Amino acid sequence: MLPRDIIGTAWQSLGVHRLRTGLSILGIVIGIASFSIMYSVGESAQQKTNQAIQELGADVIQIRPQRSKASDKKKPAARGETLSLRDIDGIKGFCPAVSDVSPEICDSTDFYRHGKKEMLNVTGILPAYEEMFKLQDARGRTISELDLESGHQVCLLGDMAAARIFGNKDPLGEPLAIKGYLFKVIGIINDTGLGMANVKNDILIPLPLAQRLFQSNEIRTLYVRARDTNSAMAELERYFQLRYGDANRFEIRSQKLLLQTQEKNIKIFEYILWTIGSISLLVGGIGIMNIMLVSVTERVREIGIRRALGATKTEIKLQFLCESILLCLVGAMGGTILGFLGARLISYLFRFPPVFSVKLLIIALVIASVLGIVCGTYPAARAANQDPTVVLRYE
Amino acid sequence: MRLTNINKTYATGEFTLKILQDISLEVVEGEFVTIMGASGSGKTTLLNILGCLDRPSSGNYFFRGQAVESLSDKELSLLRKRDIGFVFQSFNLLPRLNARRNVELPLIYQEIPESRRKEIAMQMLDRVGLGKKTERLPGELSGGEQQRVAIARALASQPALLLADEPTGNLDTKTGTEIMDILRELHQSGITIIMVTHSPEMSTHADRTIIIRDGQIVEGSD
């Protein structure tokens, strides 16, 4: 039998019970879709992480006072337990592996828009912060040294914050009241995404103004850019040990660690999809085997006729094996399409850049072929061993 | 074609069922032989063995000089597709394939290219008088027409032997006679025909009639 005829005959047979065929490949469809989504999301998260490391640098370290118990959260920290502006020069002087230090003061404030209360973060920063987190490409301009020296009441908005306060109106140059003081919007920052500085929902104002506005000198967070992350971490620990007597009172985290945590989360997501995918493929494979066995039983007479007309056992076996492989391939195509749509949805929801590749399609088709062979072998062998004398029995 | 001391037994639980006992038979090329017998007499089993669909439990079967019992499954298939054509009582057409594609089936297993296949199929259908209904599905044809398609299919690979199992059993007398006319014509063109039937009038067409009773030949073995 020519290969073309084997495939043609198999394809024809699949067309007979369309609904049954469709249902029997659902498991394969879902399994392959899970794998596609997993691959696509994993790949794109990897890309995004790499991009974040490139943009922000893996060399940013975050320092925060440690809050050991949940009940302490509301309690103001005791004197000497918080970071202060003096630590900036202290760290710069003590740690040669540190290239830059940038403080952050944070509080929240309420806004009313169309009678609805909105809560937004107000963050006091220095120009070093903008440089560290590459916020310079804002629309408009960023907070400068001149703004600090002259005490200009200006602010930058994250893109989400801008949308929440101003809606569709262009906020650039507009006045904005924060805690009763009037600020001028000078720039809009687009999402910087993965990393420590997620300023989408933030209003950024000069640090000295924030201290006066919040009536507090407490520095919530210090960001440090390191020349070498590992030695900078060690030096920082020593600094806090000497300065405050206990380095454990501060949480020192590197951007690298943070990204690793994020990667771990993505890995967990991948494991879940792996599990769903594997189970679906297993169940799908059993479904295929089942439908093939049913098909063999139904077509005993057809098998007999073909045998009487000269088909060898091998040819019958190949025909059924080919049907099983075709079933799985159709399932894999469906799964790839579903996975494509799913990955698009996820990339839209989580703002990942979507990743698709021909490699993925090829992998899916290879998996499907292997599954088709594995699940089709037994039914095909049964078909081949059917007794051909059945054709001479009357119905 | 020579059968010597053919036995066929089936083991069903504790009993051993003897279907064929000590059958010896010789059919020369070009003969038209009918096999008659009551149902259950073993004539269908004999036809299965003659058609190389089944193997005897013991005994020898020589088909055109080849010892059939020593052939592998592949060699038996080769024999079937090259030298033997089947016509069945219940036609046994594949219902999803049209008349032409049904006739093409044995040619597919001979790896004959599609265009040549189509040509042969058309020729054969023309020969049985169905040249105008080649694209009809079996369900759209009458019983007589379906049996003609089946004969065309059996002839497609130009076999030396045509095995017919009650070919007129599912047909009314008039179409039955038409089918018999076709078979007689084929016989005249030189094809060996072995036909199972239980109607004595059908066997009048034959050169020789073999009567089987309880798995044994009672008349016409030589």
List the domain count of chain A as a whole number: 2
Number of helices of chain B: 7
Largest interface: A-B, 27 and 31 residues
What does the overall shape of chain B look like?
globular
CATH class of the domain at 2-92 and 158-219 in chain B: Alpha Beta
Topology of chain A as a string of helices (H) and strands (E): HHHEHEEHEHEHEEEHEHEHHHH
Largest sheet of chain B: 6 strands, mixed
Write down the Rg of chain A. 32 Å
CATH topology of the domain at 2-92 and 158-219 in chain B: Rossmann fold
The CATH architecture classification of the domain at 2-92 and 158-219 in chain B is 3-Layer(aba) Sandwich
Percent range for helical residues of chain A? 55-70%
> What portion of the residues of chain B fall into strands of 2 or more residues?
25-35%
Given helix and strand content, the structural type of chain B is alpha/beta
Flag low-confidence runs of chain B. none
Strand order of the largest sheet of chain B: 6-7-8-3-9-10
Low-confidence stretches of chain A: 69-75
Structural notes for this entry:
The complex is a heterodimer of chains A (395) and B (222). Chain A is α+β, with helices and mostly antiparallel strands. In chain A, strands 1, 2, 3, 4, 5, 6, 7, 8, 9 and 10 form a 10-stranded mixed sheet that branches. Chain A has 13 helices and 10 strands. Chain A has helices spanning 3-14, 18-24, 26-56, 85-94, 127-132, 145-150, 159-166, 207-214, 229-244, 255-298, 300-308, 313-349, 358-384, and strands at residues 60-65, 98-113, 116-125, 139-140, 154-158, 175-178, 181-189, 202-206, 221-226, 250-254. Chain A folds into 2 domains: 3-53 and 261-392, no CATH class; 60-227, no CATH class. The model of chain A is unreliable at 69-75 (pLDDT under 50). By secondary structure, chain B is α/β, with parallel strands linked by helices. Chain B has a domain at 2-92 and 158-219: P-loop containing nucleotide triphosphate hydrolases (Rossmann fold, 3-Layer(aba) Sandwich). Helix content of chain B is 34%, strand content 27%. Chain B has a 6-stranded mixed sheet, sandwiched between helices. In chain B, β1 (2-12) and β2 (15-26) form a beta hairpin. The mean pLDDT of chain B is 88. At the A-B interface, α1, α11 and α12 of A face α1, α2 and α3 of B.
